[in-house]
Known about the structure:
This protein is of the alpha/beta class. The chain has eleven helices and ten strands. The protein has a six-stranded mixed sheet with strand order 6-7-8-3-9-10, with helices on both faces. Strands 2-1-4-5 form a four-stranded antiparallel sheet, with helices on one face.
Amino acid sequence: MSAMTQIRExxxxxxVWSFLQPAQASVDVSKDILLYVEDLNVSFDGxxxxxxxxxxxxxxxxxxxxxxxxxxKTTLMDIITGKTEPDSGSVWFGQTHNLLEQxxxxxxxxxxxxKFQKPTVFEEHTVFTNLELxxxxxxxxxxxxxxxxxxxxxxxxxxxxxxxxxxxxQDQMAGSLSHGQKQWLEIGMLLASDSRLLLVDxxxxxxxxxxTERTAELLTSLAGKHTVVVVEHDMAFVRSIxxxxxxxxxxxxLAEGTMDEIxxxxxxxxxxxxxxPEGEAA
Length: 282
Ligand SMILES: Nc1ncnc2c1ncn2[C@@H]1O[C@H](COP(=O)(O)OP(=O)(O)OP(=O)(O)O)[C@@H](O)[C@H]1O
């Protein structure tokens, strides 16, 4: 290769130098478990929000987390994502990443993405740009050195657009999307950022019946390639997507199993004061 060709190759605009590419975190799931939460405790002003909590999420599963208001669901998500520090216990991502030793940015970089109940898309940007901004690239150098996306990156965005069903809206401003479409875009942003574990908080709140159905299809289609933990109060929706449901109560796991097992569980029935867990009490 001539010196000139070598220089041209080095500065090709459609390629990112390998040393600038983020190292793909390797996650050891040889025991089939992606997330280990063990003996977890956290108190706020003496109140135990998380109380000796033990939870294991298998690699590739879709898990639903339910529980009454104040059961500790949000606090658990806050601990997993590095927002809240527990008093004791451990949280591991695969067998080698101790999440309690990492900050929020490092945890996100490892492949743990969180979607809050309220969509937080960039309203003034197109759907495509929202996904582009979420690609796992070195943001510090991308805008200045590499103005154009590589073919591979474009293909990745198209793949995500197909998955979330927004290919036709890709040039539309995110602010003009319906509530449901914004939620799907935000899930797409987690996919574009290569999140391996998706923590999804109340995805169908405020959605129409049709949007809810499409969200169920989307989340179930992600399981396998991704691991999805859904916190949801809508029991009909949980029934439509869940294989395994975990019930939290007063910061601990009260019950775990299929929806039928959960509904037949005497502890769950007692906590729900005899109410049908299909009702709004969760
Ligand atoms: N930063 C905090 N300071 C004080 N108390 C807190 C804090 N965060 C959470 N709590 C308390 O911890 C308990 C668990 O709250 P958490 O938000 O985790 O419950 P949740 O299951 O997510 O409820 P919801 O379904 O209403 O969102 C609640 O009693 C809450 O008031």
